[in-house]
Amino acid sequence: MPEKIYSQNEEQEIISKFIDHHDIKNTAVEIGINTGAKGDGTTLQGNTVFLKEKGWKCLWIDAKTVGHGVIKKAVYPENINEILTAFGHIGIFSIDIDSEDWYVVKAMLENCHRPELLVCETNSYLDPMEDLVMPLKHRRNNIPKSVCHGATLFAFDNLISRFGYSYKCSTDLGTNSFWIRKDIDPHAVDINGYRNNRNLVKTNWSRTNDTDKWKSSRELLA
């Protein structure tokens, strides 16, 4: 019987290949997980749901999702390290919160948490090679959805590569990107090879608002 797919795109397939080819600890933390798989609130949609079925220790947190073993909690740079310290060693860390993703990852890495595999939502409505990061706390004021969320592939790679990670790939639409610790796999792929992986579909997340502002990773890491 074919394996049930829980991820939004091909994330589950990519993660499966990583764990087939690398000795990754069977623990996972996923920040941002919902019941969008069927649209009726009965099935979780996430990148690590299939791992729980394989017996992995998984921690799932979301600001809105209720039930299904998900902890209802908003995650910010200010509280991520307390959460991760309580969990312990992380094999796979996945984040998709449409807001302060870049800052949460930065706070985690600067506090010496080093998941073996990182799966980060990258803003697929923007040019992946632009250096754009949503300003900290920009979306905490319940502003309308817009293209100003998260960060680009370039901005994430400029951050994550400083902490001993190799970029490996992105999904076809550029919605999620993958990094692995260099002690596990030192070969890094050039992000320019994924410069055309973009989502060109018009949605509430692709529109522009007067409130849109941007930072750059170069500025934030200076």
Arithmetic mean of pLDDT: 94
Largest beta sheet: what is the strand line-up?
3-2-1-4-5-7-6
Fraction in beta strands = 15-25%
The poorly predicted ranges are none
Which structural class fits the helix and strand makeup?
alpha/beta
Describe the structure.
By secondary structure, the chain is α/β, with parallel strands linked by helices. It has one domain: Rossmann fold. It contains six helices and seven strands, in the order αβαββαβαβαββα. A seven-stranded mixed sheet has the order 3-2-1-4-5-7-6. Helix 2 links the parallel strand 1 and strand 2. Helix 4 runs parallel beside helix 5. The mean pLDDT is 94.
Question: Keyphrases for this structure?
Answer:
222 residues; seven-stranded mixed beta sheet; 7 strands
In short:
The protein is an alpha/beta fold and 222 residues long. Helices cover 21% and strands 16% of the residues.
Helices and strands in order, then pairings?
Elements: H1 11-21, E1 27-31, H2 49-53, E2 57-62, E3 70-72, H3 80-87, E4 92-95, H4 101-110, E5 117-121, H5 153-160, E6 165-170, E7 176-181, H6 217-221
Parallel strand pairs: 1-2, 1-4, 2-3, 4-5
Antiparallel strand pairs: 5-7, 6-7
Helix pairs in contact: 4-5
